[in-house]
Amino acid sequence: LVLPFFLGCWFGFRKRREGRVGIGAMGGDLSKAVPYEDRPLPARAARPLASLPGNVLRFGQSVVLAGGLGIKNLVTEDEESKESSIKYPLNFELDEITQETRRESGRFSIEYATLAARLACFSYLEGGMYWRSDTRLVDSFHVTHPSQFSVGMLAASNKVPAFVQGFQPDLIPKSVDVNGESVSLNTQLSSGWGRINSGLLKEFDSDTDVVIMHDVTRETIYIMWQGTQSSTDAINDVRFLPRYWPYGNRSYFAAEGFVRSHEAVIMDIKNTLKKLWSTNQYKKIFVVGHSLGGILANLNAHAISYLMQDELEKTNLPKEERLVCYTFGAPRGMTWELRNDYNERVPHSYRFRNDEDIVPRIPSPNKHHAGIPVILDEHRVVINFDESAISSFVDDKSELSEAFSDHHISSYLSHVIGLQSRLRVTPEQSDMIEKAFTSLVEPTDQKQAWTVLQPTEKSKTNPLARYIKVGVDPVPLPAGVKTILQEAFGKEKVTDEICDNLLYYSSKLNETHIFDLEKPEDVQEVSINFFRTSLSELVLESDKALNLDKLRYRLAFDQIDSDNNGLLTPREFVQAAMTVRGEGDLSKEVQDEEIIEMLRKEFKECYNRMKLPYPEDPNMELSTVSFIEFYIWAKDNKIAADQLR
């Protein structure tokens, strides 16, 4: 109980002493950032012990409150459990996709789950993450120029033709028209210290990060809560003593750290929602989050059910569809009474847990999960699982590393898109895909062109939990595996080109689907989920021709990338551009500064053709080229992959 108090004092002291605006990836000297419209944030005085009295008071209040609630629980009967109105049998194993047009209100949606996982990944914008294979970092991204993005961020936020299938939400506008007047959505926060710009919300004192997006065609507003990214977030994670929760018709309580993070920004989220809603373009609110962001998403959905109650009730949507919440790896955070009210107010709420994820299993005194539980791994998914009877699919407690790796948002997205790909095919075809993958990872006397990894105890007995580590160059599938896949889907679909490049495409799948890699990793390990998804994208999906086209451009990109680090140097890129235009070789005498200017000129022309503002902040200009930027440049200039190769 005392540890969070002293940690809070120490970090508060350090933050004030160093004059920082945050701790972690978003921290740093404010003078290094260029705030929105060049307006400096309000000055903060350096008060080293300013946080001490507040921490003492809050700690005392929390201890008294915790003791009172403990005594109340001893002398009163437990409140009856209230579950979601959406009923599933206990331990219901999902084995087919229900089309959205036939899905009953509130029932599990694989489309929603995939979109929610992508949105949760997208929420990790801290550290200037523009694209997964890009190392260019920008201090205080949320408060610089949120309307000026790299090409990678433009693609990720749907500003250019979608690079990620099924990802359609866009950042909200800077202003909306209400009754003939333009109302700004870009403002400083009404409380705390921070601002909201183009839906990117940052509050520095609590280090709370939220992204608000929208999709007018679906009449939906999306709210994404970021998970733990800094020391300040970690302190809020462990502040588990109860604190009053100010929403509902009775006294509810939740973990203090979570309430603190939520309340720092909720009024500004409410104001933004009401301004957007006044345009009469929306009927649904979709809240998502991962880890700390997961429990904050739960709390936020509960608060919105009261703050936006009138607006939501006036839609023609059923209660189960107008407010939706999907979370991943969320910790416990609600008292039993709050959890019951949540299940009643937000019935369409699913809480995902990877089978070995440690965070949802961490006990917290008098704190509970909310929403319908979903447990999943590489080849199973169980809805409404019995948490008291199922700790995980496999007892693998000796492997602590998997307990943490399973918590990563990329692991959740991998399992969800793998589930989507698995349910898209027949059970017989799914079995044949697993048979093909198993033959690739089983021991053999013959020398293989890849390495089989067995990182966990589970993977030693279950081949579907193993990984394939391929090299940089494409490796064709063995004849036996090729035959299995062609029998499953037909030779006309599983062509020789696909078989020759399937493992290569799978190893690049992170760059297509995962938003949160901070370092370039040119080759990723291939899991059964990536293997399934790659086969689905190249063989089954309606845009399989586009995916095959991207594969050919990626082959060309890797041929140009001489050091195989997932990034082109300015010289490599400019030389390729000159070669395909028949302009000869780039002279070795040309200085690096001149080459960088040539590189930036190419992309300035792309921005002009797309009618988008080129980022003028020097920190945001290109100094290397990731694959997505290369791909957008090539398509914009109508340069074929064969020319580049």
Largest sheet: 12 strands, mixed
Count up the helices. Answer: 24
Shape: globular
Structural class: alpha+beta
Given as residue ranges, the uncertain stretches (5+ residues, pLDDT < 50) are 8-50, 126-147, 515-520
Fraction of helical residues? 40-55%
Strand portion? 5-15%
Radius of gyration: 25 Å
Q: What is the typical, i.e. mean, pLDDT? A: 78
Number of strands: 20
Cα end-to-end separation: 62 Å
Describe the structure.
- Helix 13 crosses helix 19 and helix 17 packs across helix 19.
- Strands 1, 2, 5, 6, 7, 8, 9, 12, 13, 14, 15 and 16 form a twelve-stranded mixed beta sheet that branches.
- The chain is of the alpha+beta class.
- It has 24 helices and 20 strands.
Topology:
Blueprint: H1 2-18, H2 51-75, E1 92-93, H3 110-122, H4 151-156, E2 170-171, E3 175-178, E4 181-184, E5 187-188, E6 194-197, E7 200-203, E8 208-215, E9 220-225, H5 231-238, E10 242-245, E11 252-255, H6 256-263, H7 266-277, E12 284-290, H8 292-307, H9 309-313, H10 319-322, E13 323-328, H11 336-345, E14 349-354, E15 372-376, E16 381-383, H12 400-405, H13 409-424, H14 427-441, E17 450-453, H15 457-461, E18 467-470, H16 479-489, H17 496-507, H18 510-513, H19 528-539, H20 544-560, E19 567-568, H21 570-580, H22 592-609, E20 625-626, H23 627-636, H24 641-644
Parallel strand pairs: 9-12, 12-13, 13-14, 14-15
Antiparallel strand pairs: 1-16, 2-8, 3-4, 5-6, 6-7, 7-8, 8-9, 10-11, 15-16, 17-18, 19-20
